[in-house]
From TrEMBL:
This is TRAP transporter 4TM/12TM fusion protein. Coiled coil: none annotated. It is a multi-pass membrane protein. It is found in: Cell inner membrane. One of its GO terms (molecular function) is transmembrane transporter activity. Keywords: Cell inner membrane, Cell membrane, Membrane, Transmembrane, Transmembrane helix, Transport.
Length: 678
């Protein structure tokens, strides 16, 4: 097999790939004057959030309003009305430094509408809730429309369309069919609920973004700039690079490490994939497989503690549990995700006979630690403070302070004032799209609380699942399971499909918040613990990043590898099959989440071993290789037996091992025969 000679992409080309596949980074260029103004505002946004969360005492509503005003104002400046804003004369009368004057006007109106309500005296605001003035209605209507448009520009059309459908549902309630019918609400009532209360735009979603997520994104940017990202990549090279198919294993480890500070699948793909994808191709992996490995590993960043995208902080607010409990629950499901990828990558390398990296291609452990060990200090401080029970914002503030101290003292990756300025601006810039999405999610959640649609849809899901369960339990073979068991399984399937479909068009956190409003009531009726229900929805929302036809992380990786995007997406989904199975494991055996009710070490151990055996078996079935190439009937047999391992219990595990033995004996015999022939 000839070595791949494809030239590695430049930073500019990588940035263009990220911009193409990640609408959240599709910023439009501005002229010099406006660029200086925008950068200054971005830096001010970072400084404000750092001060307000760490040292200031800002009223909750005012803090959320200031955050929202920054977000919406900057979105209208930095995102065009179309994804690719056509080139126009920057000095035309209708533009200022390349930005249309109408967008500047919309930005100013958005800032005013976002700050109008929070700046009212609390006593006056309390009197107007339920009886908004004409000015309140105008400002609320303006903010609602501008929020939907800002989300469309920065995230895409899917989430705003969902928001509009929910608003229509609230307004046209009397005409809704069946269980969805309700009394309806006037426009005044809708604006009053979505704008004047903390149940809508100014609700939990935007509050979490303002209080926690902004700081953690800023921490991730600064930690990367002081060398933590490079340390992770170098450590992954040292740990896994020398083994068979080494670059692919490097991709897994580096993405797992990067996931601790990055909550974006596409950003993680581009950052680590720039190094690992060309290396995988050089040692002989096919281009589509190289891209799929990187994309699948990178999506793990959203489920890897301590950041988990933004979902961890939403769970803290919804479930009212400490962040350390959420992170503990996320730990082993994330490890199982990477374990599944590792098994398939290893088997693929053995099947293709691929080499590892040579000694001269690998960094030296001593040099890596000598150059970068200081950059670990901020992450250690962050994790220690979280585990010691401190609030997330407290931990993030001191993590950021540690980044600055290390950055200014570290001789290897020393921060300059310019680096700090750019880091503060970049951190704020990375929060704009997710901030706009959070505001629109607030609209959806507000309609849910206004109309009770969550319980209505939950009822529909459970009723549908129960009907299907009744039909299945009446069949001769399937009747072994009770109707309630089939109802739970069918509900999980329906919710999983809904998560993947919605996640294909909107950010993971938005998918998670919206579907929790529907799935949580449904699963609660089926006696599923809230923590388990939240994690189930979250995992399937993340899976959309590698699920065709809209697998954005896979498509971004395909852009780096020069492979077929759809083929890459299909391969990525196969590699990420563990992520599709693990949620079912912890629904049926919540002990895997460590902090779930009824946890025992015995149940956890049995569940973990069973899950690992099941995931490994599925890896063998999908790869078609164990000690030698599997025949078709062997692959199907192993795939079917793997589900016995995933089902919790010693009995099913023992049965699975017994049924797997014939294939193992055949494989060992076939390998020995091949070795004797050689």
């Amino acid at each position: 097999m000839t070595a791949d000679t494809t030239p590695e992409l430049t930073p500019e080309q990588l940035a263009e790939i990220e911009r193409k596949f990640d609408p959240e980074t599709a910023f439009r260029p501005t002229g010099r004057t406006l660029g200086i103004i925008v950068t200054s505002v971005l830096v001010a946004m970072s400084v404000y959030h750092f001060y307000a969360s760490g040292f200031g005492l800002v009223r909750e509503l005012l803090h959320r309003g200031i955050h929202l005003s920054f977000v919406l104002g900057l979105v209208f400046i930095l995102f065009g009305i179309r994804k690719t804003d056509p080139a126009m004369p920057p000095r035309a009368w209708y533009r200022f430094d390349g930005v249309p004057l109408v967008d500047i006007a919309l930005a100013l109106l958005a800032v005013g509408a976002a700050l109008y309500l929070p700046l009212l005296p609390p006593a006056a605001l309390a009197q107007r809730v339920g009886n908004p003035s004409p000015a309140d209605i105008f400002m609320g209507s303006a903010l609602l429309v501008l929020t939907l448009e800002a989300t469309r520009r920065s995230v895409g059309p899917t989430l705003p369309i969902i928001g509009l459908l929910f608003i229509a549902f609230a307004y046209f309630g009397p005409w809704m069919p069946g269980a969805l019918k309700h009394g309806g609400s006037s426009w005044l009532g809708i604006i009053n609920h979505l704008y004047m209360t903390n149940q809508g735009i100014y609700g939990i979603a935007i509050g979490v973004m303002a209080q926690y997520v902004f700081l953690f994104i800023l921490f991730g940017v600064l930690a990367t700039r002081i060398g933590l990202g490079q340390l992770f990549i170098d450590l992954a090279m040292v740990i896994a690079g020398r083994y068979s198919g080494g670059p692919a294993k490097v991709a897994i480890f580096s993405s797992a490490f990067m996931g601790t500070i990055s909550g974006s699948s596409i950003a993680n793909t581009v950052t680590t994939g720039a190094l690992t994808i060309p290396a995988m191709k050089r040692v002989g992996y096919p281009a589509h497989f190289s891209a799929a490995v990187e994309a699948t590993a990178s999506t793990g960043g959203q489920i890897t503690p301590p950041i988990l995208g933004a979902a961890a902080f939403i769970m803290v607010e919804y479930l009212e549990i400490p962040l350390r409990d959420v992170l503990a629950a996320a730990l082993f499901p994330a490890l199982l995700h990477y374990f599944g990828i590792f098994i398939m990558v290893h088997l693929e390398a053995k099947k293709l006979g691929l080499r590892g990296l040579r000694a001269e291609e690998l960094p030296k452990m001593g040099v890596v630690l000598k150059d970068h060990w200081l950059s670990l200090i901020p992450l250690v401080i962050l994790v220690y403070l979280i585990l010691s029970g401190k609030t997330p914002d407290f931990a993030a503030v001191y993590g950021i302070i540690a980044c600055l101290v290390v950055g200014f003292l570290n001789p290897t990756h020393r921060l300059s004032i310019k680096d700090l300025w750019e880091g503060l601006a970049s951190g704020a810039k990375n929060t704009l799209a997710v901030g706009a999405a959070a505001a629109t999610v607030g609209v959806v959640v507000g309609v849910v609380t206004l109309t009770g649609v969550g319980f209505r849809l939950g009822y529909v899901v459970v009723q549908t699942a129960t009907d299907i369960g009744t039909m299945l339990s009446s069949l001769p073979v399937l009747g072994y399971f009770a109707v309630t068991q089939w109802a739970l399984f069918t509900s999980l399937i329906l919710i999983a499909i809904a998560c993947i479909i919605m996640g294909a068009g909107i950010p993971t956190t938005a998918t998670y918040i919206i579907l929790v409003a529907v799935a949580a009531p449904a699963l609660a009726q089926l006696q599923v613990e809230p923590l388990v229900a939240h994690f189930f929805v979250f995992y399937y929302g993340v899976l959309a990043d590698i699920t065709p036809p809209v697998a954005l992380a896979a498509y971004a990786a395909a852009g780096i590898a020069g492979s077929n995007p759809f083929k890459t997406g299909n391969t990525a989904f196969r590699l990420g099959i563990a992520k599709a199975l693990v949620p079912f494991v912890f629904v049926y055996s919540p002990a895997l989440l460590l902090v779930a009710d009824g946890f025992t070490w015995w149940a956890f151990t049995v569940t973990l071993i069973g899950a690992m055996l099941g995931i490994a078996s599925l890896g063998v079935a999908f790869s078609g290789f164990l000690f030698s190439k599997l025949k078709t009937w062997e692959r199907w047999w192993v795939a079917l037996v793997s589900f016995l391992f995933i089902a919790p219990g010693l009995l099913t595990m023992g049965l699975g091992i017994a049924l797997m033995l014939p294939v193992l004996v055949i494989q060992i015999g076939r390998r020995n025969k091949a070795m004797q022939a050689v």
